[in-house]
Amino acid sequence: MLSAPCRTKPASGVLYLHGFNSGVDSPKAVWVREACAYLGLACATPQLTHRPADALALAESRLAELGPAPLLAGSSMGGFLATCLAEHHGLRAALINPAVAPARLVADWVDEVFVNATTGEHFTVGEVHLAELAALTPARVTAPERYLLLLGTADEVLNPSEAFALYRGARTLMHPGADHGFAALAGHLTVLLAHGGHALPPAWRPRQHKEPDDL
């Protein structure tokens, strides 16, 4: 069972960061936008580049349009980037199956060619990706009460116990049987927004979308 959200002022907006080689049209990004639109809450879901440092810089550049204290949210690699921003700016963050050791995650993909379904871009993962991820990784996670974890017990890409250990003390929801794509987010948007101090009606649900791979 989740503990009560932190009693702070409601978030001034939401910045959602998609996972590796995903995009702004992924179901989770669309659902977050729909939920924020229902609440009349400012929301940004930028299309991130595959280069970690550039992706982080772009994400950080969008904070200013979301008010003084936005809620960060991110899936997988986007959860890692959201953590970097949360640690740097002291913001709250809701993380969906976050990558806790991203350099290790992409190490097996060096020289592999990817195609982004949203942008059509072809790119190759190189040693520069590993170096940037290693340089960006925070030494530790501070103030775990700022974080909400949404973890799937059947994540086929990441071990949820590693996230649970890294963010020990964070509010955590373990969804039985949920995989890395975490389509279960459709039913947990009330929890995600509550972490930012906003209340969706319990019965509210977004439209249904097919969930693509989201790393």
Output the keywords.
6-stranded parallel beta sheet, single chain, alpha/beta, 215 residues, 7 helices, two-stranded antiparallel ribbon
Describe the structure.
The protein has 215 residues and is of the alpha/beta class. It has helices at 27-39, 52-61, 77-89, 102-106, 127-136, 160-166, 189-195, and strands spanning 14-17, 43-44, 71-75, 93-96, 113-115, 122-124, 147-152, 171-175. Helix 2 (52-61) crosses helix 3 (77-89). The radius of gyration is 16 Å and the shape is globular. The mean pLDDT is 92.
- State the end-to-end distance: 27 Å
Widest sheet, order of strands:
2-1-3-4-7-8
Low-confidence stretches: none
Shape: globular
Helical coverage, percent range: 25-40%
Calculate Rg over CA atoms: 16 Å
Order of helices and strands: EHEHEHEHEEHEHEH
Tell me the fraction of residues in β-strands, as a range.
5-15%
How many beta-strand runs?
Answer: 8
- Rounded mean pLDDT score: 92
Q: What structural class results from the helix and strand content?
A: alpha/beta
Major β-sheet annotation: 6 strands, parallel
Number of separate helices: 7
Question: TL;DR?
Answer:
The chain has 215 residues and is α/β, with parallel strands linked by helices. It has helices at 27-39, 52-61, 77-89, 102-106, 127-136, 160-166, 189-195, and strands spanning 14-17, 43-44, 71-75, 93-96, 113-115, 122-124, 147-152, 171-175.
Task: Give the SSE map.
Layout: E1 14-17, H1 27-39, E2 43-44, H2 52-61, E3 71-75, H3 77-89, E4 93-96, H4 102-106, E5 113-115, E6 122-124, H5 127-136, E7 147-152, H6 160-166, E8 171-175, H7 189-195
Helix pairs in contact: 2-3
